[in-house]
Fold this protein.
Amino acid sequence: MKILRLDLLAFGPFSNKSLQTSDGAHGLHLVYGPNEAGKSSSLRALRNWLFGIPMNSSDNFVHAYSTMRIGGLIESAAGDRLEFIRRKGQKNTLREADDITILDETRLTHMLAGIDASTFDRQYGITYEELRQGGQAVVRGGGDLGQILFAAGTGMADLGQVQKELITEAERYFKKSGRNQQITQAISQLADAKRTLKDATLPTAEWVKRDADLQAAISQQRMLEEQLKEKRIQSSRWDRILTALPLIGQRRSLFEQLASFVDLPRLTADFTRIRSETARELDNQLQLEQATIQTIAQLQQKITEANVPEELLRFRTLITELHAELGSIQKAAQDRPQLVNQQTGAERELLKILQELGHDQKLDQLEKLRLTKLQRQRIQSLAGDYRSLLDAQTAAQNRDQKLRKAISKAEHKLAELPEKRDVAEIRKILRKIQKSGELEQQRDTASHRLAVLTAHTDVDLQKLPLWGGSLEELEALSIPAIETMDRFQHQLDDCQADLKRIFGRVEETVDQLKQIDQKLEQLRLEQDVPSETDLLNAREQRNVGWQLIRQALTEKREPDLELAAEFISKIAPDDDLPQAFQASLEQADLLADRLRREADRVAEKSSLTADRQAAEDQKQKWTLALSAAQATWQQKENEWQQLWNALRITPLSPREMRPWFIQQQKLAEAAAEIRTETIAITQLTTRIQFFCKEILESFPISERDRIAPQTPLSELLQLAEDFIEEVTTSNLKREKVESQLQDLQNDFAQAAEDFQAAQEALQKWSNDWAKAVSVMQLNKEASPGEATVVIEAIDQIFNLQKEAVSLKERVAGIDRDAQSFQQRVTTLLEQVEPKLLKQPAHQAIAELSAKLAEATAIKAKQDEWLALLAKEKEKQQECGNAVACLQAKLKSLCEEADCQSVEELPELERLSAQSLQLQQELESVNHQLTLQAGNVLLEEFISEAENFDQDELHAQVQQLHDEITELEVTKTRIVQSVGEHSALLQQMDGGQLAALAQEQTEQLLAQIRNDAEQFIRLRLASVLLQHTVDRFRESSQGPVLKRACELFSELTLGAFSGLRPEYDEKGNAVLVGIRTADSREVHVEGMSEGTCDQLYLALRIALLEQSLLGREPIPFIVDDILVMFDDERASAALRVLAQLSQKTQVIMFTHHDHVVRLAQNACHKETVFVHSLAPLL
Amino acid sequence: MTFPFEGLRDESTNIRCDVFQFLHAADLHLDSPLKGLQRYEGAPVDEIRGATRRALVNLVDLAIAQAVNFVLIAGDVYDGDWKDHNTGLFFIAQMVRLREAGIPVVMISGNHDAANRMTRSLRLPDNVEVLSHTKACTAQTKSLLDLGVAIHGRSFAHQAEYENLAVAYPDRIPGLFNIGLLHTSLTGSDGHEPYAPCTLDELSQKQYDYWALGHVHNRNVVSQDSLVVFPGNLQGRHIRETDAKGCYLVRVDDHGTAAAEFQPVDVMRWEICEVAAGHISQLDDLPDLVSQQLLKIGEKHPGLPLAVRLQVNGSQPVYQEFCAHAVNWTNQLRATALESSSGSVWIEKVKCSPPAAEIDLERAGQLEGPVEELRQHLAELKQDESGLLLLAEEISDLAAKLPGELLRGEDALAWKDPQQLRQWLGEVEGLLLNRLTQGPAK
């Protein structure tokens, strides 16, 4: 796939910026943008275009999220093209070129050969930071070939870290010999839990055993209880017999005593009491009978003496009634005269009213005057209506007049107000200008800022050394890049360091020479050390001497005198030849001896001599090197000078030029800022003028004259606002008055209608009224008041009439009652007491009443005595009966005691009591014996007991008691044991301790299982990662390493000739570099940082090339990785990238123009293409 | 505790046509522990404690509340290898409660009971009749015969009864309501031993009115004609025993027609919560999804604590992220569950599956690089059983230390099993892809 065009439609700082990247086979495309030009934004845009804009993208500072767009065109290796636009969103973010039609995302995915964003970043992108991390990881990994290749292949630098984390995490769970690991600890907890489970478990066998124990104890307890029961029965029987034996004796004696009483009558126990009580009662009754007889005689006498008037008592009811009526008759007689007066009074009043009304009718013709209820209602209703009708009419009239006045006032007010005016246009313009903000203020602020900026910049410019030109010239200067300065600084520093180092070496060699010379001198001073040469010379001399001697001895001829003389003069000038020869012989021997003796010193001397020669050579070499370094330094210095000469600046050192450069950059920025500000001010001024004109023209012509020319915009705006407000207020006022007037006219029409209606109602009432009052013989002019008075008078007449009739009836009634009373009294007196007839009726009746009361009292007394008499007679009868009864009872008692008279009874009673006592004693003894006998018959029990001997029995009972005590002790023990067993069984209560312990073991097992699985995953991951690293190394090290080797050599400018794997003692493959200079292996630890970076880059590119074979190419995105490369190595890197661009598109983003220049110089024109991101305002 | 069958009590008063009613339960497995629940902070430990016992208490409460005429238990009261006699004593205590309420119980022993020594040592109260294990017979409890009910059955004599027990069951007694009580797997059921096999036809031929079966833990009304019913076990104990568990309340009207109605008595439930997360691209969105799903599940089982397995079906990135940080994510989802359920949900396990085989565009795009090498390596390894065994040796040191329980049985951690190893390799692949690609940020 190749990117043919990238359209930055609306993204980051860009609007409709387009990058054409279609040139070249694939092409190395350099996208250059200085700082702030949007290099990073464009790099992000490329990613976001292909893979979507992230949710929280920060590239929205110009274009809102909704309008963000990135578009472009891509082409597959097969030539298929796809043009599409990416927008920000959650789905359907891909559109076709029309920015409307939604594009299926899979079409893009196919074009991208299915790679996703992270793969794209990882494998097809490299940044400066990644390059650095890669380089560092190469060093940290100690050159492990597998790791380096793997990391370079994934684009992920720190494989070692991943592996380390996997191992650490796994060891948190389990470690073969560890104790504190999660799994190990859980296993130990599990063992505890299992112990708890075991302790809590109740085995069935144990329960069965305990249960059996309990059952055995219970049955033993039962058996003991059985035995005890038997013994106790025996014991109890013998105890009873022991108790019974004395009683049996006593029983026998009682039988004998009782035999003497056999013939006596048996009297009952209470015989004596009955007998004496009966005699006493008989005496009492006889006395009572006597007293009663006397009382009866006295009563009969009193009754006979009393005299009762029976006649009077017969008329008791009538007398009482008449006496009661007497009071009301007397009261009525008193009231009568007053009632007669009231009647005549009422009749008089009535006549008087009639007269007033003008009717002189007789009283009996009054009915004609009576009004029906209907007539009365009608008149009253009409009278009531009259007032309200009259009020309605008056009110309507008043409103009519009031409204007339109000209307004329409102019309007058309206005439005074101005006509309506339209301000829409001026308001529209005003708003538009207001929206643009405080333009004049902005302009003033900008002007101020400009002035300040200019002032500061001038001062800074003055301060800037090495420069006398203007600010604009300074800004336009093409100053060397900071990187170039850095480079020069490095180079000059390097040169100086070299110089210093070489100079040091020269000095070192000079010192060395000095030391050697000193040592030689010392040797020489100690005693000149003989050398081999000295010996050779001595031997030669000796041989010369010998030749001379020999000639003399053997050839018998004279030695060569000349030679001999020379020999002698050399050896012993004062002697002859033999002496000289001897001396030479001795000298040679002496030298040989010394040589042997002083061999060390000889050797030292030769060594020193050799060293000296070597030091001399070294000095020579370093001196040469020093001049070469000086030349290099001088050359660099010249280059540096030349770099600046073109700018007419004599530079200081690169280190000093750096702050100068920064100052210059600052000034250049200031110049740009001044320019921006100036343009802004001009724009603002133009806009203000335009707005002034526009607002002025929007005023009505009449208003315009009032405005002074050159009025500032802000004042114009204020005037416009005032004008709008004034017109709006007056328009509002006018509308209000118009609306009021309309309301008043409506009200006026309504009032006229109301008046008309009121008049019609009054006319109708007048007709009705005439008809209604004619009944009372009133004419229609009579007012409702008059009619009311007449109605009231008529009412009064009828009331008075009613009252007179009623009074008359009451007087007649009183007269009737008095007469009837008199008649009834007379009749009564004639029958009862004729002598009272002469007295007035009410006196006679009072007297008669008093007599009646007296007679009633006497009668009551007599009745009381009669009752008492009857009672006494009854009492007398009862006494008689009682006496007879008691006498009969005494007689029967005598019969019972079998005697003739009552007097014999007491003796008989005494004998009988004695016999009874013996009888009772016998019964008591029998009773006690029966108790002892239990359910055996008494006689049988006695006869059985009589068989026992009391003393013997005592002994047997004692023995039995002992046996019982013993059995009880045993039983207590067994009962206790039963209790213990059942308590134990009760503890086995079905509790769930064991079940809960089991739950806990399950929970621990679950935990161990989960942890174990997690551990297994981590362990396997760690192992498999290592396997994969090894595999990858094996599969790729051949071709990849070969290619990487070429690339590395190229990137290091031939400093390294190759790379190869070395195997350490453990058999691990380690990557080493081969240095060209000396063919030495250099381990990564021995490489400089930059070289490590280049090694990483070489491997990355080699792996990328490998992976491109036979597949759809994907563009390789490079983000400014050459920052720290020097120009030569940067050029080399660019050449490598250009080579890569033969296989796939390479897009490199950079801030640095020198990179662009380097690329243009280093690469073929048809492979490198530069795209500039225009500087932004 | 609130009475769990309050609603039923009202309902029963409305039904007047019932001649009698009984409860049919099976597979109590008393004190059988809940499996697979790793304890963690906040998990509802107390709420699920002693679950099988509390389920039995609920069953007895239900019998008393409904005033049923009798209770049937079709085998497996205990767990075969459980040795604590207290379990039996607890069972007796519950049976005594039924006796006090005048409710007779007829039961048979199942395979687990036959295997357990406790079964024959217990003295059950006199309201409980255990049918003979020597031959099929009819229950002798007098009150049942008075009611007009004949209950036929046979207990297991041994743990493994491979004979067809049903054929020897007595003939139907005319005029009575005939019930067959049988512990069987019928013609076989997944996860259950094929004990006392028989066919539905053989049961039908007996012409009984109701077959009360036990042994299979999933409740199932096998036949509606004359009811043949597995009530399932009383309380789910692991993730394979999901949904409500309980017994059947059977009402028989005066025509002798039976109607069985399921009554839950369990005290906690197991559920598998599937979370479709194929549409999310990052795991941070997962807790919300899980929370929603759990709310739905919670509504299905109001008021009961739940043990839930989360089965997340995720997209590739989600799957890889989960594999890479499985423990963290499990903890986070557990916290989410606690929060959204007010502490009543116990997350048994969180499993994450990758999307089903899709057109592997990503793989197509992965060029010849280390990632592809990793995939290739794992793919080869999955096909290579001897390679897998060699790999398993890497974990032999751990396996040597693991408790035996984890290495045996149905749920064993089969660390040498190629299938299991393949699954782990899948997860390892996710883990490594995530960690390798989410390496140091660029």
In short: Residues 713-773 of chain A form the longest helix (61 residues). Residues 552 and 558 of chain A are 6 Å apart (CA to CA).
